[in-house]
Amino acid sequence: MSETFSDDLIASLPVLRRFALSLCKRGDLADDLVQITAERAFKSRDSYDPATRLDAWLFRILRNAWIDMTRRQKTQGSQIDVVDNPELISIDGRDVVESKISLNQTEEALTNLPDDQRAVLLLVCVEGLSYAEAADTLDVPKGTIMSRLARGRVALAKQLGIKS
Prior knowledge:
Rna Polymerase Sigma Factor, Chain: A; 2 domains; mainly alpha
């Protein structure tokens, strides 16, 4: 199955790229989506049922990757390329020190959280996993992820003296 699967996946790349372009309208993002799709497909090729159409399975993987990517972009905020705007590059020593202090306080507060809340906060907020991905990773229901995340955020804010 491995050689056939690989050959079929390679043959599907142009179709996947067209579908990715139709979703994101940018060549660089489409290439990223196709790469993510290929990686995920290879990783989970044992779960692929040869009785079904490979392209449909790959399209679903690509669509889910697109959804994940757009969700992450919404939470990241706007991004500015400093190469195009070199005047934006500046270092304020005071901000750097305050940021490091804040980061150290946050890391310390994280270590005081229960393991289950800390794991969810790190997976969702730091690693950028979706609730479903975190649920799969921790082998718990998605609702459990959402409640642990909510409790963890409240506990973390309380430890850091942030009013919520």
